[in-house]
Amino acid sequence: QVQLVESGGGLVQAGGSLRLSCAASGAASGDTFQTYDWAWYRQAPGRERELVAAISWTYNITYYPDSVKGRFTISRDTPKNTVFLLMNSLKPEDTAIYYCNWGNYYLGYDKFEGLGSWGQGTQVTVSS
To answer: 107-116: per-residue pLDDT in tens?
Structure first.
């Protein structure tokens, strides 16, 4: 089983930046990391979890919804089984708990099917 550990969150002023990390560990983490697509989600209080970035091995592309496009960048370090989310020009509405997951990205549908177990997430708080 693959365990996911998110880190890098914190308190930042509006306009600031953070870089989140998602480390995958466990017996199958290497194969899982290189076989599947990866994504970052966020969940704000009282709201549903939403997809904010995805990176696809299959299509060799990245996806971002309009709400973060141009500000967030997803990347990966394959030897370290780690996925990153660089967040620039942060806004108060970016405040949420951020989670990563692995699975399948559906090109043309802008959807991601998460297959892994959710980690604890990392809290991002943006002050105005």
So the answer is: 888 899 999 9
